Amino acid sequence: MIKITAASKVYEEIKKTLLKRLDNVYRQDNHMGGPWITHCEQRLKDITGRKHAFIVTSGTSAITIMCLALGIKQRDNVSVINYSIPSTVMPLKLLGAKLSFCDLNKFGQQDVSNIRPTNKKAILTTGLYGDCHDHDQIKDLGIPILNDSAQCFLSKYKGIEATKFGDASILSFSYNKVVPVFGTYGAILTDRDDWAEKIKYMRKNGYVNNSQSTIEHIGIQAQPHPDKCVQLATSLDYVQKWQARRQEVAFTLREAFENIGLGMRQSPKYSHTNYHKFCIFVDDKIKFAHKLSKVGIEAHLHYTYNFSKNPLLSDNVNKKFPMTDFFIKHALTIPSHPWMTNKEIKKVIEGVKSCMNKKDYNIHP
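Structure (tokenized):
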């Protein structure tokens, strides 16, 4: 089976460096804090141009702390994407916020063109498939922007690192991200000194050490650990090599499919993608994924959620989001990662072609 990504191949490539570093960490008596955390936070500041960076335990915890830093509370109105992984919006619902949903545009990005600032506490933007929202459309609205850039790390918005935009931004590191780790990890980035001071406490249950008798912040347990930061640091050492190969794989797939009538997601002109996911459009993505599985190719259904239709998340389940509906039915992600061999790439191309029927041609948003 050609997997959507390949954690075992990542390990084979990095294990010599990784194991040496982990051995050093595990021989220490203090397994909280330390130089690897500082090292990773500095690397992220260097890459993104952000003033502050804080490693945390997941992308979800990063979104939660980002919302806490802004002070989001019950009944605050926040604009969010209507289509993504549920962890995008769960932190807001946990805090009691009211969600105002944005549809996608034809590029699979959050359509922020119709957001109005009236009675809005914030905008949570979410980049998908390796691209980001059109920031210029919302930068002057006068309300805080929280940038969920878990999928668009290393992509560029008009030549600038996409993670640089917003009052704060978050990153997610996992087996299926452009910077993989085993399990999951995350980070919060901001240029705001006042938020940075809060986040320092909030990622450790609201306090920094036991010598203080006062608690001034609400927080969660999301403080970083040196062994996980070793994984992150090691992946960052390899990421430019991996990104070059990721682009090469994506170009090969696109060249093979562009003249046969297979619909493929395009990047907006303002974005230089990080090639995080390779998304095709077929008539029925669930059936097509099943057919691919039978020929030894794993595909993912990114995504199947229309948040506005879920009464747990939405106050108006009757509102129409046509582009969300399109992506839910048609958008399918196929393997496109740096550890694919040329033989595997060829098999994916041949497998996709063999699974297509007449209804799968020329489907575009």
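The chain is about 35% helix and 15% strand. The chain has a mean pLDDT of 96.
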